[in-house]
Design goal:
Length: 208
């Protein structure tokens, strides 16, 4: 599989490509229109270690828009923050959760603007990895009748992976089975806690 778009190497002139290739975590590059243009070996290693292959290689080739990974509030946040990074020429960093049913993982992500607003290099580094705490996150059974809302959807937070409980509007539960595999009728958004703490939009961000 191709891992580098022909347009991308000139944008990496100030970077050590060997170091990017050897980085333990997933690194990817996008062009100004957010099309994937570079994937390091760590991208595929992460997918393989987390049960994402061969789907990741098949569904996310070079040329696909990064924005296709999200909808609603999630897409709005990604497009706003990466767009500001691209236009300002200043790097942007944040931390995000990428946990499995049994392991809690926190990653640090940094987006570096490239060239004259021509693309972005996005580096992901593991910060924390530890077993899930059953006290902090009491596991709940995957009971679709309990978590399906009036529209027939199960809503999962895209950050913490908790599932909204329609019977108690302020409650979001940890359902390990749906971290392993989401039901087909799952919709992703941010729970109020993650939205307010991890994903605050800048005041100038346009409403959609």
């Amino acid at each position: 599989m191709e891992r580098m778009d022909p347009e991308f190497p000139p944008l990496l002139a100030d970077y050590d490509l060997d170091a990017l290739e050897a980085h333990a975590g997933p690194i990817f590059g996008v062009l100004a229109d957010y099309r994937l243009a570079y994937l390091n070996p760590g991208w595929f290693r992460f997918a393989q270690d987390n049960g994402g292959e061969p789907a990741i290689s098949g569904d996310w080739p070079l040329g696909r828009s990064l924005l296709d990974c999200a909808r609603g509030e999630v897409r709005r946040y990604i497009e706003s923050m990466l767009g500001a990074c691209l236009q300002s020429g200043e790097m942007w960093a944040h931390e995000y959760e990428c946990s499995s049913a049994s392991v809690h993982r926190l990653y640090h992500q940094v987006a570096y603007p490239l060239g004259a607003r021509q693309g972005l290099l996005i580096v992901n580094s593991l910060v924390i990895e530890c077993p899930q705490d059953p006290i902090a996150r009491p596991p709940q059974p995957a009971d679709a009748s309990r978590y399906t809302d009036a529209d027939g959807l199960i809503t999962q937070c895209a950050h913490c992976r908790r599932v909204h409980n329609p019977e108690v509007p302020d409650r979001w539960d940890w359902v390990p089975d749906w971290v392993r595999q989401c039901p087909p009728n799952t919709s992703h958004t941010f729970c109020p806690t993650c939205l307010g703490f991890h994903y605050p939009l800048p005041r100038h961000a346009p409403e959609q």
